[in-house]
Amino acid sequence: MWVRWVNAIYIKTAGWWNYQPKADSGWYWRKICSVKEKLKSLFSEAELDQMPKYSIQKVYQKLVQQHEKVPWGSAVWNRASIPKTRVICWLMVQGRLQTRERLHKIGVCNTTTCLLCEAKDETRPHLFFDCEYSRRCLQGVEEWLDIPTSKVHYMGLLRWVKWKSQCSKFQKTAIHTAVNATVYNLWRARNDALWNQKVPTPSTTIRCIQRSVIDRLAHIGAKQSSTNDQIWWKSKCTV
Ligand SMILES: [Zn+2]
């Protein structure tokens, strides 16, 4: 009934495939038409005609394929990490954390000085991990987990974990959890400086990261499948 009504009122003699809604059409109708335009970028008219029944699964699979795989996806969204650390890390890689540089650009903040070192501008690359404070925290975590302390850039660190390290699956999980926790705790330290005028020492932040990773992996029951992993992790839990 609705389809017949739509044909009579809107489409009339025009073909649905090339139909464009009028500017004064209702919002819901324009929305339906915009979904149709999106489908056109995924399927040809013939492909859709051949579909005996509209399949949500097929359309979803095609949509997913269209998204390029991001090199940080599995690290940021690794399930072992505490959810709030995943979100902050995701915002960080997207460049969407509200750093002072961003706030200054939109006229919300009248200074761009880094709250942690008070020496440079607070930009994303500075906070993660060019800042003297961040660098010391990251290197503390790297030393703890046997990561070369020359890995001072986020993507370089992820590449090392994926391609160069000889880490086991468990070790990679622990490292990704720790890197997410590092980003989260640096952002928290920065916010502490902003709202409470207190900057924790780098060693306090490092201990906080270590504790959160140890507790989290114990909480979710992350398995060390080899004796090597067990020995390795036991040595890390004594901090
Ligand atoms: Zn700084």
UniProtKB/TrEMBL annotation:
<dbReference type="InterPro" id="IPR026960">
    <property type="entry name" value="RVT-Znf"/>
</dbReference>
<dbReference type="Pfam" id="PF13966">
    <property type="entry name" value="zf-RVT"/>
</dbReference>
<feature type="domain" description="Reverse transcriptase zinc-binding">
    <location>
        <begin position="54"/>
        <end position="136"/>
    </location>
</feature>
<protein>
    <recommendedName>
        <fullName>Reverse transcriptase zinc-binding domain-containing protein</fullName>
    </recommendedName>
</protein>
